[in-house]
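User: quick one
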Amino acid sequence: MKAIQAVTTILAVATLFTIPLLLDNYFVTWLFTLAAIYSIFTISWGFLERYSGRPSLGHASALGIPAYLAAISYNLGFGILTPALVSLLVIFLLYYLLSLKLGKKEFIFATFVISILLWVAAPRLVLGYGDTMVGGEEGFFLPHVPLKTIYLLSFLTLFITAMIYDFLARTGLGIKMGAVRDDELAAKALGVKISRMKFFASLLSTLTAVAAGYLYSFQFSHVSPEIFSVELSVFPLIVSIGGLSAPRMTFLSFALLFAARALNALAPQFHLVFYAALLILFPIFGRRLYAQG
Amino acid sequence: MLRVKSISKSINHRIIVRDVNLELDEGEVMGIFGPNGSGKSTLLKVIAGIIKPDCGRIVFGDTDITFLDVEEVVEKGICYAFQIPRPFREMSVFENVMVGCLLRYSKKEAKKRTEDILRKLGIVHLAERKASQLSQGELKLLEIAKALSTEPAVLLLDEPFAALDMKNALTVRDKVIELKKDGYAMIITAHRMRILREIADTFAEMRGGMLHAKS
Amino acid sequence: MYFALEEYLPLTYALILSVVASVSLSSILFILTQKIGRETVGRTIIALGYGIALEEAFRLWYRTSYFLTVTTDIPLLFWEQLRIALFVAFIIILALFYLSPKGLKIKFIEEDAELAELYGVNTSLYSFFLLLISTIFVTLLGAISSVSSAIFPSMGWGPLVSGIVVYGIASQLGGVGMRVQLNVLVVSAILGIAFAVGGGI
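Assistant: Done. Structure below.
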């Protein structure tokens, strides 16, 4: 069963990778790349939920912080490597400490509040060079990276992330992390070191979120306050309705993004209503997620 | 082997455990009975390190374990099985038991040990089933299996026969008797003394937080 | 979101219309949370979806991203005084509830809703009643505040986040009934002063 899951993951990513190659169309490649980034982002969220029982309702901040720090650092003339390390540290500490100190419910509220605060604060971030001002509502620009490069990097990262995500469940560490997700006190009573498990879950989630944040910002060569939007934060939550395995999360991330984009093209006003409807109906489908809330 | 000296615990200004003393030797089984709210569960949780006592000492072997965390107490060899089973609901029965084994052995060895424990408790046929799909009787056995996976010298079984029909209660009782034969020291709580009669070597009654030895 | 809702209604009819509209909307939310959501997390997600849906409804209704304003001949000071009066009225009504025989039941629900249900307290009725009271007051606050604030669809996020932060901190201080409300007051005052001193966010 588990070997089948690994094969499914490989086939899923390989199929999605091949379609843009076969169609050889700029927009298709661009859209599939974006969907791959959304999948990495969703799996990053999954690391927190599946391996520490802490679903975030503000995961957009884990995507936005590295993107913003990279853009600011680039605009100030520093490299883009240091902000990656800084954002790794910041997001990791945030998730690790919050998951240690807060229960499931409180974690959801805390992550939600943080992402909204960043969403509200981001437009006020302005950098000035003499007469020129950058940032604010418009955000920051980043150097252009060829789409083919982002496409290859995104799918490579998605493949590695998805494999680690599912493979972890088969390892001893993954089983112990699963125990922490299901019942912290019961795991503790067996001798599981809760803080160590949450350390790994937060670390893996942060690593993938930072990768997704960088790919996202370089895909657009631009980062704006919308990266912290509720729309992005609730995306993984909605995807999780379909299950928490890597192939399901990957396929559903692609499907949801395509559906949202299609809706955006057909009736641009209504695509957030679509998200809102899914959120309202979420408890019917996503019962497992909060069953022990 | 295990000495509990003058342990007291209050919760919300109410004394739940009052100046309790007890001693447990290797391989000995102690049965504690008493009505609901008499402090049996709290006492076991205090010994297991899940709740910290207000005063008193708990010594295991030569080590003072009074203020150790539950993980450290388990490492020393005392494991608590919850009154209301707390399985890892999304995991299989096999994985549930394997969690404890993985903390002590390599994955290969842990698998072997898990299988042995499931066989010992007669639930090997449930290995692949999700814990959330088990009946109450099966959950009780799984709870004991999880505790056994930590290879304890002392098992603290909190009302293992509660909320079970007669058939299931007898099945669990038979398994506990087998564990006694294997040499596990145990403290078992129950509402009534009767079910403990065939298992325990010594008896004590808990009433109003106080423990009274019974013969 | 009710705060935002209110801001979109004409000032003349604001008080009546906004109360009627928000009571209807809160009733719908209540039915959704009762029928679909079971636990706090589920209900929170439903409320979030509902909030986004309302925000989008206003965006579609006005089809603008510009700010709207409400002008009136009545001096601003009057509206500020009205806000204070509303605050005092709200505290008095809350205190009266908690002091009445029903107050004990509300405290019971706050302490342990499941247990209260088992003991025969109609938790749904009380939840609905409390939701209604808070809706009416938030709506009135929105109406009164509309003259001194810019109005746009997503304006509800700020109060929503402040509410979660304040209540999150206040609930950590423990207690039930008026004690929680007093904690909320203290935390709001401290944070309000801190942000005012720090220049706001």
